[in-house]
Write a structure and sequence with these properties.
The chain is 34% helix and 24% strand. The chain is an alpha/beta fold. The protein has 3 domains: 6-241, Glutamine Phosphoribosylpyrophosphate, subunit 1, domain 1, CATH 3.60.20.10; 245-418, Glucose-6-phosphate isomerase like protein, domain 1 (Rossmann fold, 3-Layer(aba) Sandwich), CATH 3.40.50; 432-581, 3-Layer(aba) Sandwich (Rossmann fold). A hairpin with a 2-residue loop joins strand 2 and strand 3 (44-51). Helix 4 (130-138) crosses helix 5 (143-154). The longest helix has 22 residues, at 423-444.
Length: 590
């Protein structure tokens, strides 16, 4: 189940609506099937909302012109209730004196809704989120602070919500969903993502579970679900604003593919003390488990191979969604390496929770250094690739791989020569510069392709899985990553005329065996695209990549043509690569 909504609240000295709309556009990768804004002025709360993307709905409803210097906003990715205007947030209660935006899932909403209906409350949506507004109204006689604490104690599930009240107070609460306060010179933001306010302030307060924030007048108060005061430091967020802009590129996805020229080198810039601490925990562990979801799981597979081959450390990989059974072997002598770009992925955080209960050390690999995963880790390292807005992971994946190389190099200094000037850094720049036009041309001829198989051996198999994932995410093509050595154990039966196979086949120890697979495929009439540093007559199309003297670096180079192919094939099929259907960037519930 996916629930990836963006929520934002603002109270300050500027007009709220245009700020909220701008913020929602920046966070739209978290959900884009509907949008809504509520503003407060002179004792009234006005709500405008509808289905569609932020720019479309804002223009049709003239949201930016809404008056008031206080407001809340939301972009939704539907879970409970269809994509309709009535199910869009914000939601109000019966008296229209409260409006709420919510990210997460209220697991006991049916029970609460039935209870509220019996006492006369009338619901106007099918969402689980609306119960929050009604509960706040039920407990209004306790005052706003009492209403918030009483409501939070009734909710089960995962949630972060922001509410605006009839006196102009805004408030937010969180449990297992991110919620961050932006502290500006002339006001406050309450947001699910720092990108919601980064263009206005780089000062942030990261709320913990069971925290509630209340902004009344110009005063901010943070307390827990029991009403007790809570203190948090103000953190300066380091990301540069310019990185959030698409610049000259048509899509964030294309920009982020091109960003890899720089970001793979950035992953080498690590704090030496933290790297040393990270590697010591890893090397001292009696058992090592590595977890991640989606693209991050493919990074975990690469790391497992690299640790075994170069550092002689045996590790087990576990999909984060399978952690309940997959992590049963953890104990006080274990270490769990957790990959997550956002650091807020629900399945990954659940894995961390399981590992902590069993006494294991947590090692985080993140892109957001202030995320829940980073804060839960005994040591963490950052991929340092800056904000990634495109829903499909590109630069964060290669950043993770570059960081894995650096970890292995630190653990086994006489093996990989990884760092800012490593061989793969120049190779990544070269493949980006040389491949785009050829791949764009190739993709334009693949518009009618609906099934693609990607084959790879050893470390190339996780890249086949990653390439298949990108093609599914962006181009809506059925794509399947296959271990090349397993071709004769089933997949060969699918090879026939009009079948398209992409073979990851650089000149390393796997080269000759994989080339034999290509001949077997061609004998059945299928077409073969070879991604390699060596051409062959068996390839119908050859995508050339640079030759690597260190064969461990091939995965980070060969994945980039696959990212490009997914992007350009999406365009050929008239799909928006930045907003793939049914998906969103950070899956914050299980």
């Amino acid at each position: 189940m996916i629930c990836v909504c963006s929520i934002i609240g603002y109270k300050g000295k500027q007009s709220a609506a245009p700020i909220l709309v701008d913020s929602l556009k920046r966070m739209e990768y978290r959900g884009y099937d509907s949008v809504g804004v509520a503003t407060f002025k002179d004792g009234d709360i006005l709500v405008k909302k509808g289905t569609g993307k932020v720019a479309e709905v804002s223009k049709s409803l003239n949201i930016s012109a809404m008056s008031g210097m206080i407001g809340i906003g939301h972009t939704r990715w539907a879970t409970h209730g269809g994509v309709t205007d009535s199910n869009a947030h914000p939601h109000s209660a019966c008296k229209n004196n409260i409006a709420v935006v919510h990210n997460g899932i209220i697991e006991n909403y049916k029970e609460l809704k039935e209870e509220l209906i019996k006492t006369g409350h009338v619901f106007s949506s099918e969402t689980d989120s609306e119960v929050i507004a009604h509960l706040l109204e039920v407990h209004a006689d306790r005052g706003i602070k009492g209403s918030l604490t009483a409501t939070c104690k009734r909710l089960k599930g995962t949630y972060a919500f922001v509410a605006v009240f009839q006196d102009g107070t805004i408030a937010g609460a969180r449990y297992e969903e991110p919620l961050i306060i932006g502290v500006a010179n002339d006001g406050y933001f309450i947001s699910s993502d720092v990108l919601g306010f980064l263009q206005y302030t780089d000062k942030a307060i990261f709320l913990d579970n069971y925290d509630i924030v209340l902004v009344d007048g110009s005063k901010m108060e943070i307390f827990n679900f029991d009403g007790n005061p809570v203190a948090h430091p103000i953190t300066q967020v380091a990301w540069e604003l310019g990185e959030v802009d698409k610049g000259k590129y048509a899509h964030y996805t294309l920009k982020e593919i091109n960003d890899q020229r720089v970001t793979v080198a950035n992953a080498a810039r690590q704090d030496e003390a933290m790297m040393e601490k990270f590697c010591k925990v890893l090397s001292d562990a009696k058992s090592v488990y590595i977890t991640g979801s989606g693209t991050s799981y493919h990074s975990a597979l690469i790391m497992k191979h690299m640790l075994a081959r170069y550092a002689k450390i045996r590790a087990e990989t576990v999909m984060s969604s399978e952690a309940q059974d997959g992590l049963v072997g953890l104990d006080e002598g274990s270490a769990l390496v957790a990959f997550s770009q956002s650091g807020e992925t629900a399945d990954v955080l659940e894995s961390v929770k399981i590992a902590k209960k069993q006494g294991a050390k947590i090692l985080g690999i993140v892109n957001v250094t202030t995320s829940s995963l980073a804060r839960a880790s005994d040591a963490f390292l950052s991929v340092n690739c800056g904000p990634e807005i495109g829903v499909a992971a590109t630069k964060s994946f290669t950043g993770q791989l570059a960081l894995v190389y650096n970890i292995v190099s630190s653990l086994a200094p006489d093996t990989l020569a990884a760092g800012e000037k490593a061989e793969f850094v120049k190779a990544v720049e070269k493949v980006i510069a040389s491949s785009q036009l050829a791949i764009e041309k190739m993709a334009s001829k693949m518009e009618q392709v609906n099934d693609i198989y990607l084959l790879g051996r050893s470390t190339h198999y996780p890249i086949a899985l990653e390439g298949a994932l990108k093609l599914k995410e962006l181009a809506y093509v059925h794509a399947e990553g296959v271990a090349a050595g397993e071709l004769k154990h089933g997949p060969l039966a699918l090879m026939e005329k009009n079948t398209l196979v992409i073979l990851l086949n650089p000149r390393d120890a796997t080269y000759n065996d994989s080339l034999s697979n290509a001949h077997e495929i061609k004998a059945r009439g299928a077409s073969v695209i070879g991604i390699s540093d060596a051409g062959s007559e068996v390839y119908d199309h050859w995508v050339e990549i640079p030759h690597m003297t260190e064969e461990a670096f091939y995965p980070i180079v060969e994945v980039i043509p696959l990212q490009m192919l997914a992007y350009y094939l999406a365009l050929a099929k008239n799909a928006d690569p930045d907003y793939p259907r049914n998906l969103a960037k950070s899956v914050t519930v299980k």
